[in-house]
């Protein structure tokens, strides 16, 4: 308890470097945040630190000191996690959807093992957990409750047995797709093939319910969202998505789906990625991509094809004439408030996407900055009760509900369907 008390007592010091809107009157917010996070763990639905370390540090990640890392390279390290008051983290074990699915399984197992290694190497900092009660217990001892999210349906390679193996290793959710449509589910950022879920995809949702794993609908198409909401007997999550009404990307959640999430009892965990927060930034990204193609699109297209230096200079000139739009912490708070307005304050959470994105809003550059977002919402009039729901109370409720559904399905047979067996002739 002493370690926890010291960690939380340090939180007010964060506000010496807070945003100007918070810095004007930091003490009331800091004290309130300490009080909230002393009783409710702050839970982030999505952090890509394992993959970032695999990509940038390679084999060194297994032994390097993770207490303090270069903030220009990583959004996450242990010292900043402590400074940010984090109480529970779903670590994403993402593997590229471009890889063959069998390779995805191997790489996923390595990513899961890395999360396990965090708890072995830093037992005073991290504790592996799979239930809501275990999250609360870890929080009481001052440890960060570490959970695992498998970020893509392709990572099960069409196998219910692989899904169960992930669960046995501690996986807490499965994101039904990542960036690409797969054999049994449509993705938000790829051409649809199934109008949502296939029969096998529906069977995956039912097996997730039986296992007590959360159904994660970030990255999936709206058709897949609606099918999963229809099939799931447990509340669903969006581990890192925003409000489509404010930023019109299919990675975000429409108001129509938000209302169904409320009926389902689920939670949408707000993403900090600039391109999913700001509509101006989303359009700028698209315009920049178009400019890249206009200048140099091998093998046959582009004004400067065959001359990459000229193409590079042309892009520099374009960026001077079209500066990157600024994304702010206030815009993230706008997404929180919109989801709370449409779905209800019981259905919104935090899913940062730290270490999985290249651009973040001003004031939210790393895992030490969660208190700044909570303070911004307090400035807007949010009560301590509602801040506690956002911070972790809502996702703990969803986890407990999924556990109850699984207990009720204990007598159900294991799912052993196959894509070929259920979906033959369905596409």
UniProtKB/TrEMBL annotation:
The keyword Signal applies. InterPro entries: Metal_Hydrolase, Pept_M19. Pfam families: Peptidase_M19. One of its GO terms (biological process) is proteolysis. GO terms for molecular function: metallodipeptidase activity. Keywords: Signal. Residues 1-24 form the signal peptide. The keyword Signal applies. PANTHER family: DIPEPTIDASE, MICROSOMAL DIPEPTIDASE. This is Membrane dipeptidase. It comes from Sphingobium baderi LL03.
């Amino acid at each position: 308890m002493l370690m926890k008390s010291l960690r939380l007592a340090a939180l007010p010091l964060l506000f010496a470097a807070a945003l100007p809107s918070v810095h004007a009157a930091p003490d009331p917010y800091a004290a309130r945040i300490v009080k909230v996070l002393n009783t409710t763990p702050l839970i982030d639905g999505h952090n890509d630190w394992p993959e970032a370390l695999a990509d940038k540090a390679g084999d060194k990640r297994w032994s390097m000191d993770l207490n303090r890392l270069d903030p220009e390279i990583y959004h996450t390290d242990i010292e900043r996690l402590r400074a940010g008051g984090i109480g529970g983290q779903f670590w994403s074990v993402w593997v590229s959807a471009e890889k063959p699915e069998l390779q995805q399984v191997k790489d996923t197992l390595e990513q899961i093992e890395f999360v396990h290694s965090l708890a072995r190497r830093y037992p005073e900092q991290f504790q592996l957990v799979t239930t809501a009660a275990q999250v609360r217990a870890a929080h009481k001892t001052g440890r960060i409750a570490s959970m695992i999210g498998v970020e893509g349906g392709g990572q099960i390679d069409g196998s219910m047995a692989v899904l169960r193996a992930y669960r046995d290793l501690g996986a807490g959710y499965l994101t039904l797709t990542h960036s690409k449509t797969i054999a049994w589910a449509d993705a938000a950022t790829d051409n649809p093939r199934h109008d949502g879920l296939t029969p096998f995809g529906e069977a995956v949702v039912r097996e997730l319910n039986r296992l007590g794993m959360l159904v994660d609908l970030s990255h999936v198409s709206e058709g897949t969202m609606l099918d999963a909401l229809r099939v799931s007997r447990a509340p669903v999550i969006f581990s890192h998505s925003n409000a489509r009404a404010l930023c019109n990307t299919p990675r975000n959640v429409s108001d129509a789906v938000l209302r169904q999430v409320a009926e389902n009892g689920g939670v949408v965990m707000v993403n900090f990625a600039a391109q999913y927060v700001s509509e101006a930034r989303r359009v700028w990204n698209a315009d920049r991509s178009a400019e890249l193609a206009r200048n140099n699109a091998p093998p046959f297209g582009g004004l400067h094809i065959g001359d990459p230096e000229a193409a590079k200079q042309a892009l520099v000139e374009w960026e001077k004439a079209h500066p990157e739009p600024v994304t702010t912490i206030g815009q993230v708070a706008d997404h929180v408030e919109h989801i709370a307005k449409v779905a209800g304050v019981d259905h919104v959470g935090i899913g940062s996407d730290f270490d999985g994105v290249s651009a973040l809003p001003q004031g939210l550059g790393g895992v030490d900055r969660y208190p700044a977002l909570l303070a911004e919402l307090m400035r807007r009039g949010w009560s301590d009760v509602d801040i506690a729901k956002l911070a972790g109370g809502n996702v703990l409720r969803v986890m407990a509900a999924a556990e109850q559904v699984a207990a009720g399905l204990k007598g159900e047979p294991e799912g052993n369907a196959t894509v070929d067996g259920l979906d033959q002739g369905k596409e």
